[in-house]
Fold:
Amino acid sequence: MSQPPPDQPSAAPAAPATDLTTLFPQGEGIQAQIARRQRNATIWRFVFLGATSLAVIILTTLLLSIINQSFGLVAEQTNIPETQLIVNYQKSLMLEASNVALSSEDDAALAEGIAADAAGVGLLGNAYTTQNQDTLRALSIGGVAPTAETVQSGAYPLARPLLLYTTATTVADKPQIGAFLAYYLQVADEVMAEIGYFPLDEATLAQQETTLLALLGATELPTIVPAEYEGDIVIAGSSTLNQVTREVAKRFRAEGFQGAIKITSVGTGAGFAGFCAVDGGVDIVNASRTITQLELESCRANALNPVATVVGADALAVVVNAQNDFATDITLEQAGLLFSSAVNWAEVDAGWPAEAINRYIPTTDSGTMDFFVATVFAAQTLADLPYDSLVTVFQANVSAGRCRAAEAEQRFYADRFVCDTEEAFTARCEGENPTTGCTLAPRDHASLEALVQAEVIQPEVLQAWFLAESIFRRDEIVATALEEYPSADVHFRRWLTWDFITRPQSATPELAGVRTAILGSLWVVGIGLLAGFPVGVGAAIYLEEYANKRKRFNSIIQTNINNLAGVPSIIYGLLGLTVFVRVLEPITSGAIFGVGDPTTANGRTILSAGLTLALLILPVIIISSQEAIKAVPSSLREASFGLGATRWQTIWNHVIPNAIGGILTGVILAMSRIIGETAPLVVVGAATLITSDPSGPFSKFTTLPIQIYQWTARPQQTFLLIAGAAIIVLIILLFILNIFAIYLRNRYARRIG
Amino acid sequence: MENMEEVTPLPKSTSVERAPLNQLAKRPRVGEIIIEAALFIAAGISIITTIAIVIILMEEALRFFADDRVSLVSFLTETIWQPEANHFGILPLLNATLMITAISLLVAVPLGLASAIYLSEYASPRVRGILKPALEMLAGVPTVVYGYFALTFVTAILRAVLGKDLVQIYNIASAGLVVGVLITPLIASLSEDALHAVPNSLREASYGVGATKFETATKVILPAALSGVAAAMVLAVSRAFGETMIVAIAAGAGPKLTWNPFVSAEPMTGYMVRISGGDLSYQSLDYKSIYAIGLVVFVVTLILNIISQRVVARFREVYE
Structure:
């Protein structure tokens, strides 16, 4: 850098202007000129600074735009939500368990059963518990007993709202429905308390009244005179709410209602089924849980838009016989055990007797069951289910044909078949077209999970929004998304997750991951460096230490290397394709060693890709190693020769140790370059979809940049988003490998030098 | 050193004593020879690589031209590239490549030169310490990432500003702009080296006669470093010409002869990637055609690289 550089012309005069004009009349013009030049210089200074800063701005924009793509709101739709799948599975386990003494929608029968069975345990609404206080006892959960306070404050974990569902069209068509609902809300508190449930608090009640007003299209709640209405009312659903609704209906009729009210206790699920079906005939659903996504979808499919009215609250109680003297307080987890896997009481709590548990539970349609399972197993995901359970879930949710096909691809168990048969399998594997299942090892937990995700849950992102929009226009987006995709769930999604990094490649973008690609990248880059490093450094040593620079041949080599450095990388791809993939196929496919991957059987392998990249980085390594070797002072060599060392001894003991830092810097540069290299590998022949990890140099390959390219080339928006997430992974990988290499260089260079 | 005089001079060696010494010197050292041979082979691999590239490209290109459906004349003059209809005119592909190169230079030359001047002539060590690594990082971003950036960001901006009717999703302009970003650090870093090599005496002389910093940089230093700057530009052209992933992602598929930078037109390298990424047989004419195109890309970039090296060698001003 130069000395204090004048930003203004050095001729700038310091004397006052007045003196100057008299002494030197042309001065004003010169001064103006100087000022102009100063101004120009300043302006250009900022122009240059701006242009240079643009690098920082572009870099920031690039990173931000990629982050912007990788996170944001999505409207996601599933065939069946994961939580629902788990609820269904746990419910079926509970119902099919051998120690179920009674499964009924008649809560009175359940209460009677437990009352008569000292080892009995059951799930009952608060009303039945309070009505049968002499024979039954509710357990507290986590130290919280079900009371009005704990239910209203939410401290009791199994507290739940009781709801009535109807639709605006039903209310409009049948005035008696609206009247009944309004009447219900008026008397709800009284009836709830009377039967043994919990009334609404003020705020919730006010909310429900607003909902009702909107439903009725009125501005003020009318005073209902039941005698003014006629027509039928059909109510179906929860057994829990059944008693309350019956009582309300009794009063409604007692005040003069002319029509018939038909109430059935079939369970919340069955209630919704009748309600959402075309001509199902159900006007109001008694619900002991909120409507599920699936039920909502089936309703909307028939142009029905269910509206909920909360009428009270219940505490679902885990109830034991009054004579049971050991169980008083359990955790939520123990509650789960009590109704699922535990067979006797000692399994739930070591202090309890080893007596069999007799269960008294509602049926599969019960909202109580759904609510209980969903609450107790809320944190469970597919990953928590044991392998056998996942197989059962998969088998139960796909067609037999699809299950057989999945088993043909890869078996579930090594020793038995789930959907296929031994004979069919053997016949196929000995036939002309053996499937991949014949050679592959059975599935592991992770791959089975991926299968269930892809085939059963089938997540699909219908639309995604970028991070910036998702933050600044959140409400607007959520509103339009709900309108446009009624069956979808709108939520914030991070595309870059740990799952994304550890999952294998998949044809479904929502489930795809980059594990295969990361491993592929490491393999290919590793082979590239392993082959490129010794050859490159060797060539540099030859050129600097052995070659006679005046000889024409050696200067040709030098020029040639400089030119090779400028050859576009795609040309190396053509070279690799022809030499490694086609000409040297027996070697690169591994056939000559007899270890080839049977699924590949051609030269498009990790080895070919790695060798191609080795050629690509050769000039980079040679040139930087040459620079490093040149920098070693010749006095060192001369001293070594003077002591009688041979040329190689000199190089090995003195030149290389002194140049190693610079050489390794070149290797790091080369590595950074080939990690991101895409074009030559596409030409060499990267695989488009491989879901299994590379097993060695003769496997098919894909790498992270190739994955990004392939996803970017797809038209669907979702692929672009995961490509963005993969780019972040690539940048992080680049960063980590660089840091690691720099650390190694510093350590290694210090020890030798 | 002080004892020098006490050292008795070595007796003149007799011929009897010299003989084993000579033998020692001439004794062939097998290890050394093997090592030298191995190192020579390592150096020779680069020559083999070059020869292999030339032979492979020539051979496959010849096979391509040997086909009845293709002729060298139509390859160079025809304006349609439709392999399925046996039209193999390289002009649409070449045109797209040249347009992208031109657009990239429009971005990179002013930016790169301005950055070089700023870093070499203006920047304080602190500012330099921030801006130079940023420029280098820009050069280290994988090209596939730039391609993604072009497609999802630059194209989106272009479409938002100029209208969706005018700008297609895949277009030459966004590919060219981003290739420009890619080669800016190359121009900046090589030009800066050249500017830096200009001796300080020139600067001081310029300041001495009252020139501003801007005047010194543009009228004294830049002309003095012109050969290095020119070489940087030529190298940048070569790099833009051979750039593949950005254009493959952002410029679109389907060769088209057009002057409109806002429509999609496939450049040479983009075509090569698309064909080789597909599942065409090695024997198909399309597949052979990528070698012919590869030969064109190789020759053009090689000529540009050689020019760049010659420019530096011949016009380098030797100071002091």
In short: The two ends of chain A are 31 Å apart (CA to CA). The mean pLDDT of chain A is 83. The CA atoms of residues 533 and 621 of chain A lie 7 Å apart.
